[in-house]
Amino acid sequence: MATSSKKTGAAIAAVVLIALLGWGLYVSFQPVHQPIQGQIEAQETNVSSKIPGRVGKIHVALGATVAQGQVLFELDSPEVRAKMSQAKAAQDAAGAVYQKAQAGARPEEVSAAKYNWERAVTGAGIAKKTYQRAEAMFTEGVLAQQKRDEAEAQWRAAEQLAMAARAQYDMAQRGARPEDKLAAEAQTRQVAGVVAETEAALDETRIKAPAAGEVTKLAIQTGELAPQGFPVVTLVDLSDVWAVVSVREDEFKPFAAGTTHEGTIPALKVKVPFRVSYVAALPAFATWRAARPGGTDLRTFEVRLRPATAVAGLRPGMTVVFDR
Questions:
Q1: CA-to-CA distance for 186 and 97, rounded, in angstroms?
Q2: Does 2.40.50.100 match the CATH number of domain 45-75+204-233?
Q3: Are the C-beta atoms of residues 162 and 121 closer than 8 Å to each other?
Q4: What distance in Å separates the CA atoms of residue 126 and residue 133, rounded to the nearest whole number?
Q5: Which of 234, 213, 238, 214 has its CA nearest to residue 40?
Q6: Which residues of the chain fall short of a pLDDT of 70?
Q7: Do residues 185 and 143 lie in contact, with contact meaning Cβ atoms separated by under 8 Å?
Q8: CA distance linking residue 150 with residue 144, whole number of Å
Q9: Please, how many CA atoms are within 13 Å of residue 128, restricted to the half-sphere of its CB?
Q10: What global pTM score does this model have?
Q11: How far apart are CA 153 and CA 205, in angstroms?
Q12: Mind listing the pLDDT tens digit for each residue in 13-52?
């Protein structure tokens, strides 16, 4: 009886051992679900200038918090200042030409033109009387025809001179032609545009923050040359942060846009709810996974998740872990 009980116990133990071994083999062949790890990123803004120049002064330091519109640095550009002086001088000259065209001739010029016309009229009258005497003498036969023709030519010339003087007098009274006035006005607008362009360039020597943020990089120091478009200051907006994770396609379904996932931030030792705000339309890369038979390529997609609530102390570069 005792022997039979021992055999039964041994059989049960063997069955249990085989079951445990089978369960162990089953578990060992199951895929291991590691947590998905990502990192925090934030909106960065590279601030540069539209014009080249030497950095005259930097108004901020690394780590400083700046407001939108705050002056970050200034450029010293003698070329822009010289262009501004040229544009202002051209504007003054164009304004003088425009005023002259609108005002017309000066009173002294109008009076001088009138006196010239009256003198020409008087001269034409004398020349006409001289011609009339020469004509009478020619008719009586006491004057040669040559002298008579010369007197007539002088009279005609004097009349034409009087007409020209009258035209000058009329033109002085009317002032500049409408075309000249329009040309002077157009030149004034053209120069005003040049001045506005130069003022804009001068304003670009004072570079302001396009958005609020924290200064994380100063690429150039005072006295160095800043090329056009070169990022001198980098700002990070700590209020606009998100987590970036890479998710394989076989684990992609739970991370649909709008879904919420709890993430752990080891640096802050807190758990924060994150909401999926962006899912890449195309995969970023592929990973190889061993499978039977052969291997399998699995595409990986970038997913961005934004904190559902504000997290104090959250900074770019921190690690965030999401459980599967």
A1: 11
A2: yes
A3: yes
A4: 11
A5: 238
A6: 1-7, 9-11, 23-33, 97-98, 100-110, 113, 169-177, 180-181, 184, 285-295
A7: no
A8: 10
A9: 9
A10: 0.58
A11: 72
A12: 777 777 777 766 665 555 556 788 999 999 999 999 888 8
Asked if 243 and 38 count as a contact pair (C-beta separation under 8 A), the reply is: yes
- Nearest residue to 113 (alpha-carbon basis) of 178, 180, 162, 154: 162
User: What token pair was written down for 37?
Assistant: 């790890």
The CATH classification number of 32-43+235-322 equals: 2.40.30.170
Structure tokens at 301: 């997609």
**The tokens 């947590």 sit on which residue?**
35
Helix 107-140, helix 145-174: angle, nearest 10: 160
**Predicted local confidence at residue 250, as pLDDT:** 81
